[in-house]
Design goal:
By secondary structure, this protein is mainly alpha-helical. The chain has 2 domains: 1-60, Single alpha-helices involved in coiled-coils or other helix-helix interfaces (Up-down Bundle), CATH 1.20.5; 85-121, no CATH class. Helices cover 37% and strands 3% of the residues. The protein has one helix at 6-55; strands at 94-95, 102-103. Strands 1-2 form a two-stranded antiparallel sheet. A hairpin with a 6-residue loop joins strand 1 and strand 2 (102-103). The longest helix is centred in the N-terminal third of the chain and has 50 residues, at 6-55. The N and C termini lie far apart (87 Å).
């Protein structure tokens, strides 16, 4: 804690005890604790108001706030409609066995998830052999 070792803390407490006396020390500790608590509450309120300004709404009032005091009442983020990735026609490439995404026939790794693709056992048809009959 702040680079202080236990011996340093003991020395500080002894010096404070000698300066202020045993009767004033608890009172001073209490007032310092209250000051720290006030500071924390103030910073929490400022942080909440900044967050409310960023979200575009005003700080929630105490009367209509169902959340416990000191907690920020946030609204859920706006939902974005799901847009599936463009899928190539089935005869145009390898399909990933992990995510199902279509990939080019010469691809070795999935374009979507990065996993290795299985060997492409179906070769694209040769255009010169389509017109021949056997």
């Amino acid at each position: 804690m702040l680079g202080l070792q236990p011996i340093h803390i003991v020395i500080i407490v002894v010096v404070a005890l000698l300066i202020f006396g045993p009767k004033k020390l608890p009172e001073m500790g209490r007032s310092i604790g209250k000051a720290i608590n006030e500071f924390r509450n103030g910073t929490r309120e400022v942080t909440d108001s900044f967050r409310a300004d960023i979200n575009g709404s005003e700080a929630p009032g105490a009367a209509n706030n169902p959340v416990a005091p000191g907690m920020l009442n946030t609204t859920p983020a706006q939902s974005v409609p799901f847009q599936p990735a463009a899928v190539a026609p089935p005869s145009a490439g390898n399909f990933c066995i992990h995510c199902g995404a279509a990939n080019p026939p010469e691809g070795r790794f999935c374009n979507q998830c990065g996993q290795p693709l299985p060997e492409n056992t179906i070769k694209p048809a040769d255009p010169s052999s389509l017109g021949q009959q056997g």
